[in-house]
Design brief:
387 residues, alpha/beta, Beta Polymerase, domain 2, Four Helix Bundle (Hemerythrin (Met), subunit A), 5-stranded mixed sheet, two-stranded antiparallel sheet, 48% helix
Length: 387
């Protein structure tokens, strides 16, 4: 599995540099590769530990993994949710499941002779680094219903079932969709996210007079992500239903959780969907987190097509987002690092090596001054929505 993973990454790098694949397709391919790696590694570890294939465990992706926007050297943001069986305590995780998760994580990231694995990040689980690696679905739902901060709901927009019990994973996705799609006032969303964005810029970007952070710095990718995701959380108005090719088909409604089979019952029988929860009973689609920032940005722009800032149309921000994402991919290749740090000297080195501009999607950024200009324009739009 590890050898196949690293061979495929090399193939994608060559296709990228040769102009045979665009950056949106590259992100999809890298995400599919991560899905393959996670699913097959989980199956191998479960078989090694002699655990049943129908273990009620869902491995869920968050961040770029969840949204299908993986880049080179992206880490795996994973969350683990377990549904206790009828003979198990409702609020406890069996020791065998804890051991499974621990070994599974080790197999994902430990360097082997066949090459490196993936960097891991499990901090997006309920209660963060202070909580257990795996939680019951009751604990997961109670946390997001009553305790989660708005930034945790923001992160929930990207949740996606990757491996394990698909019916449990679908239940988690459905509940996440309901939580994310609730109407919220701007006053309950924007001030908190603005505060968190400012902290992110000051504490994590660590920009200097000469070095910028393409993702976390002023006018970086995070500005666009926060702007779009905040608008999604204020009413969920721009979240279209599932359609084929956008995360899975809309599934028919069932009056009981699909994984209450086999006499499991318990918690799920008291959390059935009600007509007031969504429009499933009338034949509509499940509410779902709008995972992809690219897709969410397109929906966002449909509602504000003519807004301008300093001569910049809001719809031009979509092209700016694509250009910055493309530059981020190439910076990672150039530096062999997931940190999106860039200065003028490094940018010119990429140009001289033929890493920039790419064969396509690079017209907005040809010089270092173009990078700085785009950042100013993006920050201006961000402040327009979040003064």
């Amino acid at each position: 599995i590890r050898r196949l993973k690293n061979e495929r990454v090399l193939q994608l790098v060559l296709a990228d540099l040769g102009g045979r694949i665009d950056f949106a397709a590259l992100e999809e391919e890298l995400t599919s590769l991560a899905d393959f790696f996670i699913g097959n590694t989980l199956a191998a570890v479960m078989q090694n530990l002699d655990l049943p294939a129908d273990l009620p465990l869902s491995v869920l992706g968050m961040g770029k993994l969840g949204s299908g926007e993986m880049s080179y050297l992206s880490d795996l943001d994973l969350v683990f949710v377990y549904a206790p069986r009828a003979h198990e305590p409702a609020n406890q995780i069996p020791g065998e499941v804890v051991r499974l998760i621990q070994r599974f994580i080790n197999m994902l990231y430990t360097p082997l002779q066949e090459g490196p694995g993936y960097p891991m990040d499990v901090r997006l689980r309920p209660t963060g680094t202070h909580g257990p690696l795996v939680v019951t679905c009751k604990a997961w739902l109670e946390y997001y219903e009553a305790q989660a901060d708005i930034w945790e709901i923001q992160a929930l927009l990207r949740i996606r079932h990757i491996a394990g019990d698909p019916e449990l994973g679908q239940w988690i996705e459905d509940k996440a969709g309901e939580i994310c799609c609730r109407k919220r006032s701007q006053e309950s969303v924007w001030p908190r996210l603005r505060h968190l964005r400012n902290r992110m810029e000051k504490e994590r970007a660590a920009e200097t007079e000469t070095e910028i952070d393409l993702k976390l710095g002023m006018g970086g990718l995070a500005d666009i992500e926060f702007m779009v995701q905040a608008q999604l959380l204020v009413g969920g108005a721009f979240i279209p239903p599932f359609s084929k090719g956008q995360g899975g088909p809309a599934m028919p409604h069932s009056t009981s959780p699909p994984f209450s089979k086999g006499g499991q019952g318990g918690f799920y029988e008291h959390t059935q969907l009600r007509p007031s929860d969504n429009n499933l009973l009338s034949g509509g689609a499940r509410p779902t987190p709008c995972r992809s920032v690219r897709r969410a940005l397109q929906e966002f722009l449909k509602n504000f097509p003519k807004l301008r800032f300093g001569g910049t149309r809001l719809d031009q921000i979509c092209a700016a987002f694509g250009a910055l994402r493309a530059l981020d991919h190439r910076v990672r290749l150039h530096t062999n690092s997931s940190a999106a740090k860039l200065d003028e000297r490094r940018f010119e080195a990429m140009v001289s090596l033929g890493l920039w501009p790419p064969h396509f999607d690079g017209s907005l950024i040809e010089t270092w001054q173009d990078v700085l200009r785009l950042r100013r324009e993006i920050r201006g739009i961000f402040r327009r929505f979040c003064p």
